Amino acid sequence: MKVTVKVQRYNPEKDKKPTWQSFAVECEPGDRVLDLLNHIKWYMDSTLTYRRSCAHGICGSDAMLINGRNRLACKILVKDLTKEGGTITVEPIRGLKVERDLLVDMEPFFDAYRAVMPFFINDDPAPAGERLQSVEDRAIFDEGTKCILCACCTTSCPIFWVNGRYLGPASIVQAHRFIFDSRDKGSDQRLKVLNQNTGVWRCRTAYNCTEACPRDIPITELIEEVKRAVLYQKV
Ligand code: SF4
Ligand code: F3S
Ligand code: FES
Q: How far is the CA of 149 from the centre of ligand 1 (A)?
């Protein structure tokens, strides 16, 4: 089949603003959008710039706005987007500075991630063996462990678009993962960060984040749990 891939292009060294460029690409219905972008880069225009690594939905590096919705280019199939002769539009994710074409500056996203201390905190003397945890306690924070930090959620949140200082759903999911870990002792510090005016109270339950997540994490639900933890200052 043949489809048109309409890609947003931007080269800060010569363009005043982004423009669109269309490529007619031969493909199979089961190809992924990443295959199409690779075809364009390898055979049609080597200057096309985008980020990717694993190509299997694991590393989280190829989040893009595809046909108006945040998705991983390596997960979404052509047949799920269009038919023979149709068009697929590809733009950079929103709310982060575009460095070139589909490549955005992820630093503000990772600054917010670091701000919630996404690591295990427990200064108690290390036990002789493992820090044991019940199956039930492990299940409480299971959803957050599926996050691959792709930023599909944060960059689909309207609050983040207007206020880039909002920590965003991805960071709150990461905070949830540790706040609700029965072995962790760092909740007080995290809840303080999340109670600031850049924290959880910015969320207006728009649900865009939940709909955008390629790992089907119930993000809004987790945010609501974190809000309750912040409100009562305990888990
Ligand atoms: Fe991506 Fe989902 Fe993690 Fe957000 S919560 S960064 S959408 S995997
Ligand atoms: Fe934004 Fe998700 Fe809340 S889209 S407003 S973080 S529910
Ligand atoms: Fe790794 Fe798509 S390239 S998630």
A: 5
Q: Which ligand is nearest to the CA of 60?
A: 3
pLDDT of amino acid 106: 98
Burial pattern 27-62, b for ≥16 Cβ within 10 A else e, equals beeebbbbbbbbbbeeeeeeebbbbbeebebebbbb
Do residues 66 and 94 make contact, with C-beta atoms less than 8 angstroms apart? no
Ligand at minimal distance from the CA of 37 is: 3
Q: Whose CA is nearest to atom 3 of ligand 1?
A: 147
Q: Does ligand 2 lie within 6 Å of residue 112's CB atom?
A: no
Query: Best mutation site among 33, 38, 56, 77 for ligand 3, i.e. most ligand atoms within 8 A of its Cβ?
Result: 56
Tell whether pTM > 0.90.
yes
Going by C-alpha positions, the residue among 93, 71, 147 that lies closest to residue 116 is 147
* Residue 18 structure tokens: 């982004």
How many residues are listed for the chain in this entry? 235
pLDDT along the chain (235 residues), means of 10: 98 96 98 98 98 98 98 98 98 98 98 98 93 96 98 98 97 98 96 97 98 98 98 78
Domains of the chain, with CATH numbers? 2-104 (3.10.20.30), 107-232 (1.10.1060.10)
